[in-house]
Amino acid sequence: MCTQIKKSSDYRSERRRYLLWLARHLPSESPLYREWPPSPRCLHETSYYLKKLYHKWRCHKYRLRFDQTARNRMREKVTASLLFRDRKSSYPKSVSHPFRGDYVRLRHNVKWKKIAAETGDQYVVFADIINKIARASGKCLQTLFVVSTSAMLVMDHRTLQIKYRIPATDIFRISLSPFMDDLAVFHVRSVSMAPSSLIKSMRDLS
């Protein structure tokens, strides 16, 4: 009995010393910092849970520094990581670049606002001038590529004339190569199933 009490007392004393020491030697508050102070063998499990709690706390503290817009951007970065990490060679170089979405300030364009009001594409997820490969000739043509929450639009980058607009529900897959390039292929449901206006616009584009 005395031995058990002594062991229990030693354990409490060891735990107290460790916690006081740990409080003075906590690692960086950066969520990227992975190091963690060592612990006595009998407190490995305690150390494991303290490490998880501390990391969760510093991540929470880091997120509090950002407004809602910045938090949304962080979620986009996490989504991009889940999609492209270890799958796309050019992905690591893009991590440090903030995702702006609207790279041509389309949301501020008066003409676009009128177009968006008519088409229902007010919220722009992505907009930039890209090189589109023409199916007929194989040549690259500069065009304004816009993705809203409702559709994908290909527009004349000078006049903002809509060449064609494909509802988001008609896009069932996006393919990328695993290499260091910017190629993307959008898979649209069969033309035979598409509305006549879409068929005409796609033929005009060819």
UniProtKB/TrEMBL annotation:
One GO cellular component term noted in the UniProt record for this chain: myosin complex
Record-given protein name: Unconventional myosin-Ib
Residue ranges annotated for the TH1 domain, each copy included: 88-206
Superkingdom of source: Eukaryota
Signal peptide: none
Record PANTHER family: OS01G0621700 PROTEIN, TH1 DOMAIN-CONTAINING PROTEIN
GO molecular function, one term: cytoskeletal motor activity
Gene name as annotated: Myo1b_3
Coiled coil (residue ranges): none
InterPro entries per the UniProt record, alphabetical: Myosin_TH1
